From TrEMBL:
Span of domain Solute-binding protein family 3/N-terminal: 65-295
Species assigned in the record: Streptomyces levis
Protein name in the entry: Ectoine/hydroxyectoine ABC transporter substrate-binding protein EhuB
Region (Disordered): 1-21
Keyword Nucleus attached: no
Keywords: Signal
A Pfam family that the UniProt record links to this protein: SBP_bac_3
TM region positions: none
Signal peptide: none
Amino acid sequence: MAPPQRSPHTSPEHISRLGSGPTRRSLLAGVAALGALGAAGCSRVATASDVEGGDLLDRLRAAGVVRLGIAGEIPFGFIDKDGELTGEAPELAKVIFKRLGVDRVQPVPTEFGSLIPGLNSQQFDVVAAGMYVNPERCEQVLFSDPDYQMLDAFIVRKGNPKGLRSYKDVVEKKASFATGTGYAEIQYAVEAGYEESDILIVPDQVAGLNAVEAGRVDVFAGTALTVREVVKKSAKTEATEPFKPIVGGKPHVDGGAFAFRPTETKLRDAFNVELRKLKKSGELFRILRPFGFTEAEMTDLTAKELCGG
């Protein structure tokens, strides 16, 4: 998503971002070679530019392809069982870049924590992984406006025997707690008073589900979307109602967006223009809905707001 919130890494981002189906790890195992080949095949597109505002969009148009950094996280960006790139961010990228004159997208799979370093070292052109926008990340990359907003939720045992509905509940009831690698939920729990050293860190929400089902932890925290999707086939667990984590003493709503290198303001601005058109027409929701997003998760939040500027 992601979510320190999915620190640089960070899911889903996913820090949070955040699916059932192939996990981030399995995607990496299956298509690492594809990512490496993609990086080699298009390295000429990502050379640095001294042009004010960047000239990457012009170079992408000339090459006819944009390389997307993804983290193998359902539903944000992943390779499906047929070997095809999909997810809310890649499908949105296909539409927007087509409108910008770039016909093809190419996946470059990596770990979530390697997305920002990979972007800034020009291994790919854009991060398309549903990455949460937060001030820490805003110091390293340039974000589009969010294409979705997201609350948190927990995976708990059926009936929620400990009554866990917030991070404060987890602390007060001394529940054993897990979340994903680099997820924003790590910091949210710590801010509520949970000892970071006591948090069980697992690869993703599938591993979190398994930990709750096996009784290794009382609760796993993730995004409302990934939590509600992953528990659908579980007879032992359920998802809590979505809630706003407390950040800086105030209820907080996260937003996920595309990330660009800090010099590429022209590309980011052109991307935002098309994104706003999709929001206004309702097409954005039609693109995201197949991946489990609801109308409540559409947003008018801006990157400036979430960056704290």
